[in-house]
Amino acid sequence: MLRIALATLRARGGAFAATFIALLLGAAVVSACGVLLESGLRSGLPPERYERAPLIAAGRQSVDLDVKSPDGTDDRSSQPLLERPRLDASLARDLAAVDGVASVVPDRRVSVRLLDGDRTVTGANGAVPQAHTWSSRVLGGFRLTEGRAPQGTRQVVLDTRLAARAGLRTGDSVRLMTSSTPLTFEVSGLVALDRHRTPRQSVLYASAAAMQRLAPRFGATADAFGVFTEPGTPPSKVAPALERVLTRHHAAVYTGDARGEAEFTDIAVGAANLVQLSTAIGGNVLLVAVFVLCATTSLAVRHRHRELALLRAIGTTPGQLYRMITAESAVAGLVAGVLGCPLGVGVVHWLSGQFAGRGLVPPDFRPVVGPLPFLAAVAATVLTAVIAAFVAARRAARVHPTQALREAAAEPARLGRGRLITGGVLLALAVSVLGLGLGHRTDFLTLVGLANSLVLLLVIAAAVLGPLIARAATALLAPLLDRTGTTGWLAALNSRARATRTAAAITPLVLAVSFAATVVFTQTTQLDRSADEIRSGTIADHVLTAPAGMSPDLAHRAAELPGVTAATGVVRSKAIGVGSLLGTQETVSLTAQGLQPSALSATVDLDAHEGDLTALAPDTVALSTTAASWLGLDVGDRARLHLGDGTPFTGEVIAVYGRGLGFADLTFDHDLLLAHTTAAVDQSVLVRTAPGAAGDTARELTALARTYPGTTLTGALAADAQVEEQRATAWVNYVVVGVIIAYTALTVVNTQAMNTASRRREFALLRLTGSSRSQVLAMMRRESVTVVAAGVGLGTLLAVPPLVLIALALTGAPWPTVPLQGWLTIVGSTALLTVAGAMLPTRLLLRVRPVDAIGTKE
Ranges for the ABC3 transporter permease C-terminal domain (predicted)? Predict the structure, then answer.
């Protein structure tokens, strides 16, 4: 069978070309996702500032929570932390008391802005520089290359590359800014990594007194502790005792290359994003690949019915046909998988750049390229090809030889009982899912999950019942086709007579339009709703913003200006809780904002549905309707969450509000949330003025903003800045849509081309009986229009139910946001490919003389 399969591949290379390309594209994307997944799981960098300390004690950059699986068993689920956990400085005494520990060196750090006039000098990889205590320099590989150590409260040491970027030398003055107005320091010296290495993060060192000026809020804390062991004591002997000390502080001991995780805390968040993104994209690609390849392979096998019937007639068993067809697909899958993996490397580098540009991974992210993702991609490609071949060969191998010979000449008049039953069951399930979704209108997670399941059920049902749909569509369009003359009548007749062939062309169109419309319009609905909530919910007259955040003191100073009735800083972070979806618990990361309770109602309108937002306090929290649905909480319940740095929080739910998409899922007391953020800055300041004082107050606020470089005054919150994370998520979903359209476009072109190529004798007969070349082309144009109208119409209709559920989940109303331009782009691209897939082969076939084509073998 393998020898026959190889011979068939050589003889029918054109027929297998599209399937091979689909497998090649799938292998490239799956291998790329595998590399990204491995990079996320194995992400890590060797330490730089911590490389000389054998042990580093630092907070865990993730939190583990107990969840219950559907069968009731307990499990643990981990979520990365957005903020950097801090430890009490007094912990150094407990660590130093452990046997075998020689010394403990605390490390404090704070992000700083280095100002050159009005310009901010960025550090390595476009990130802000990090200031550290001078005493912590012994932990790593930085050495003093020029000048002297910083002394007093007004001296700092810069790394040489940062100094060169800012044009600074020893003895120069430098302005630094953290969460206060700019402070001026003297550059007392320069440091550099040994062995002429380039630091991943730009650093500067300051004395303890200078660090207190830069970061007065965190004087009693440390970011990490470097632990040096006594001579002759291996770190592995000391580590367990240190772990016992750190257990109650949500901290851990890092050794070896793991010390880089404690130093570069952005790696953990980027790794979690990579794992999530790669599994989402890879899973969708595999799902679409199986669906597309089943349709493509089934069509290829259908065009070979006469050949397969002849094999059956000369004694070939069904099992032998199975093995031949699966062997053909396995060989094609193996070759496509091997050739697709190098393309996957290119996809990885493109995706990496896109992810980094949108803040999903660190800017200097480098993928880990190992053999496992490529082996998995090849195996997945071969398995997908074999599954598609098995499904396609099932009917061809089971029929009786004489029946197969009849079916090679004419399609069956009725749909098989099995397909009717399967399609009916799928439609019944889809109706049940829709009904269940409409019955859970306040349950966000349930609605989103049901919407995703619903579109899949509807598309599969449309594929199973394809011939019936094709006949129904042709019956609806036949009167219109008949009015276009003889060519229209022929087009309608052909579509009715070859319903299976027409259905094979309609199905990928339905897949492309319904999937693309559901994903794209889910994002447009969410972004439109978010922007609307920001516009309607911001009642402050003025907004102060800065790209790197602002000092919390700015809000206090603004509140003291004449004519200002209320002012609040807005601090943003994340919080983690346990949500429930259809009986399954899972951890969820929720956006969080902190506002001053006294100024909340005067600056924002969160659209409170229940409770009283004025009761906000450090031991309470307000939830959006979405968060309340996720967490299963109501007003008066106790919310158990973990703040962005992993600190447990338990507080009473005092309100449930409606504008969570535009603002945040959770609203905390400003000072509480600020204390658990890494930068300890406000993202914006909302100011409300007294009636008639807007003009004078604006001038005062403008003057105040000048004392904080980079701060600007606007009249409203910028929607783009507020929904930046949502836009990044939308882009990822657009990538998924792009892959789906690429796959289905390939299938559409291949299906149309194969259907058209099999009709060369039909075209020759039409021309020999008097039809002109232009009439045949007109007939094919009308058939293509029939396919486009049926596919686009059905695809659009199938996208409506899931989009209704999504709209209910996001807005509470069943009306999604569907931009006409977006819908026309989806429809136009798929329609163009459909017509091109039919008309280009038709033109090529019509170049052959009818007398030559009529005798061509099938």
Answer: 285-401, 735-847
Are the C-beta atoms of residues 512 and 745 closer than 8 Å to each other? yes
**Residue 388 dihedral angles phi and psi, to the nearest 5°:** -60, -40
pLDDT score for 285: 72
Residues 6+ apart with CB under 8 A from 207: 133, 134, 149, 150, 151, 152, 153, 155
Q: Is there a contact between 62 and 270 (Cβ–Cβ < 8 Å)?
A: no
pLDDT score at 656 = 94
Report CA 674 to chain centroid distance, whole Å: 28
- pLDDT band at residue 710 using 50, 70 and 90 as cut-offs: confident
7 Cβ partners below 8 Å, 6+ apart? none
Token readout for 38 is 């491995």
What count of other Cβ atoms lies within 10 Å of the Cβ of residue 435?
11
Asked if 199 and 363 count as a contact pair (C-beta separation under 8 A), the reply is no
Angle at 128 between CA 123 and CA 131, to 5 degrees: 95
Backbone region of residue 593 per phi and psi (left: phi > 0; alpha: psi in -120 to 50; beta: other values): beta
* pLDDT digits 0-9 by tens, 302-348: 666 667 777 767 777 777 777 777 787 788 888 888 888 888 888 88
Element (H, E) at 161: helix 160-166
Among residues 451, 430, 532, 518, which one has the least CA distance to residue 809?
Answer: 451
What's the CA gap between 19 and 390, in Å, rounded? 14
For residues 373 and 37, the answer to whether their CB atoms sit within 8 Å is yes
What is the phi/psi pair of residue 545, to 5°?
A: -135, 160
Instruction: Answer positive or negative: Cα dihedral of 601, 604, 610, 613.
Output: negative
Q: What residues contact residue 589 under an 8 Å CB cut-off, 6+ apart?
A: 79, 82, 574, 575, 576
pTM, to two decimals: 0.79
- For residue 512, which phi and psi values (nearest 5 degrees)? -65, -50
Give residue 846's identity as a one-letter amino acid code: L
Beta bridge partners of 77: 65
Condensed to tens digits (0 to 9), the pLDDT of residues 364-390 reads: 777 888 888 888 888 888 888 888 777
Average of per-residue pLDDT values in the chain? 81
Tell which residue, 541, 649, 653, has the closest CA to residue 599: 541
List % helix, strand, coil for the chain (3-state, nearest 5): 55, 20, 25
> What is the secondary structure of 779-840 as a DSSP string?
HHHHHHHHHHHHHHHHHHHHHHHHHHHHHHHHHSSS-----HHHHHHHHHHHHHHHHHHHHH
Q: Answer yes or no: are the C-beta atoms of 740 and 284 closer than 8 Å.
A: yes
- The answer to whether 333 touches 424, Cβ cutoff 8 Å, is no
pLDDT value for 496: 67
Spatial separation of the C-alpha atoms in residues 641 and 77, rounded to whole Å = 14
* CA–CA gap between residue 854 and residue 355 (Å, rounded): 55
Name the helix (H) or strand (E) containing 546: strand 542-550
